[in-house]
Amino acid sequence: MMATTQSISKREEKITALIMILPATLLLGVFVMLPLGMAVYRSFFDYRAGGESLYVGFDNFRKILKNTIFFDSIANVIKMTAIIATAQIVLSFLFANALVRIRGRKAVIARMLIYLPYLISGIVVSVIFTLMTRYNGGIINAFLIQLNIEPIAFNNDTFWSPISIIIPTLWIGFGYFTLIMYSGLINIPREYFEAAEVDGAGFLRKTLSITIPHMKNYFILLVVTLVVVNLQMFEIPMIMTNGQPAGQTMTPVLYLIHSRANSNISDSEITAAALLIMLVILLINSTIFYLFRTRKKDEWEH
Amino acid sequence: MKKKIRQQTLNVVVIAIVLLIFLPIFLMLPSMFKDRYEIFSYPWRFLPIHWHIDNFRRIAFLQYTSIGINFFRSLAVTSLVAAIALVLGLAVNMTAAFAFARLEFPGKRILWALIISTMFIPAITIWFTSVRVATLLGLLDTMAVLIIPGLAAAYNIFFFRQFYLGFPRELDEAARIDGARTFQIFTTIYIPMSKTPMVIIGAMIFMGYYNSYLWPILVISHQRQDLYQMMYVIRSLFGHAPTIGYGAVLAATFISLIPPMIVFTIVQRYIREGIALSGLK
Asked: Which of B7, B111, B253 shows the shortest C-beta gap to A21?
């Protein structure tokens, strides 16, 4: 009797489990795995000739790699991502350190408010920042004129265009990243800091030898997130600069969206390019993980 | 004494930085009442000389102009899409997370590996072929195509699974002895205890849908203007700014921030706990 009840409940569990995972599995299969498979397949064919498909091997990849606009856009976005990731990590880490040191209501309110920009879309943020950075009549230039400084074409200038993309990007994520850093900071046992303070360690000393080693996993997670998100950026550049000047703020995703709309390169090449972007992201992230691993090994050896 | 000064400086710095974050929005807010000439006039003024309420009327009646966008309908439809996605998204991801955290079934490990691997596929890589899939399924130009493809998200499943793995198993066993079926254990024990992650992930799902720009324009054509999503509308209005005036565009932009503000007031109590959960395990 007991055995049958148990086997019935085991069967019931198995059936329930399969029903419960079905929707998510089906959706990921149809809308992630299948499109990925199709992308890989299609990148080896040429569909241009009136409905017929022709196997072309790596031709699409070769063509897209010779495409200087695409190639430059990858270089642009890597540069901007490097700056954004570094700045975001440093700024949010410092601000989180300030936040843990204040108490009371203002601390609670500060922690709450800084989350807000994270909910706003890149498009909305860019509209607001574009109006502020406008050459004619933007508030920043109005201020510069007041100070007798020449107005700057923030959205169409070799030096300032990348910055006018980087600032709104940092603005959106700053509070969110600070809160993650904050939750990492409060998890470090206080005794470590107290012991260090007895030894007369200052902020820098404590940060280098206690905080950073303890928060290594946070840093890696945040860097990887920043890399994945920012290598695919397109909304802010689309509104702020639209790739100007002379393609210097063109990003790969923005270029592919433009290309698809104007059909100036074939769909197969776009697909190949999209796969290359995935490879670049995977490559950079594996490098980050790899660097972290070797460090850990070093620690063991010493 | 020295310590007290340092503490005070720190307080001032934190408050200053929080104010600095809100400075762009604060400075631009009154500009939505400025007319097309005043908004870029020099010298720059914080408050408009003439409060130009007409910007809002213009936004409300865009559908009768050559731009042909119904802003407030779009605001409602986008919020509706995001709200439906929020409910369905939580359902899809939480059920899967529960099964992976607590139940035994054949193929569990392989399926889990496959689900996690989808986290590493960037959206750009599958966007265009997903449109093809949606076309083959006959979903183009429907509300369903805005909602369904993004519902299952490996990160959300992962997040809930981690959360459920931390629950004491004794609760399940006690319920089983009382004769509860597997699904009842999920609905009566796991769902009520998931409030914080539900609020945080729910907010992220809602905002992800509300803020999405590219997918809607890939799958909704001009045949279905009634399904136009907010971010596309904002971008179009921005493109039409020379005609309708930047003040009106700014008015639309700020009105589009109302749903995020509502989300924010709901989640603000859960932010700290939620972030601590999403931090490292």
From this structure: B111
